[in-house]
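Tutorial handout. Part one gives the primary structure; part two gives the three-dimensional structure as tokens.
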Amino acid sequence: MNARLGVLISGRGSNLHAIIDAIQAGCLDAEISIVISNCANATGLERARSAGILTKVLDHRDYRNKESYDHALTSELLKYDVGLVCLAGFMKIVGPKMLRAFPSAILNIHPSLLPSFPGLEPQRQACDYGVKLSGATVHIVTEALDAGPIVLQAVVPVLDDDTPETLTSRILIEEHRLYPEAIARILDGRCRLEGRRYFRA
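Part two.
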């Protein structure tokens, strides 16, 4: 697979930092072609610029509807010959045009053990339900929210005195380890997709 990454962020981009660090350490054989944010004040943009990575702001509020924004995002990624799109705290839903342009080549990381607790605030959901285990999941993005084939997962225990904030902090540590590893497995062919499931090759 083309190892040129397009990373989409909305905020501080801590998983973007982890990907950059993995590339610089030689643990991930990839190149970030462009980092795109829908928020001009996303602090992750500065981290990318400091690493010499091209950045672009595409504010969703500047587009008349979701379809036109989806078109703009897709066109920008294609312009830079991106082979794998990585959502790293990107708080917008990926549209059908991008899904068609990058079939089975859009990754997302979610702070729960999917299929449990999809959508918003999964850490709060985990605490509210009283589950004993949560974690992080890297999955392929599909039209269904947080329901695509799972590439990798990491388990994090939920402690009796956990709050959504403390659980978030501990899950984030696993996210930063998991995401570069999942990207590496996709790029070097160690994972293969069969139907709806990913297997180690």
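Part three, for discussion. DSSP finds six helices and nine strands in the chain. The chain has a mean pLDDT of 94.
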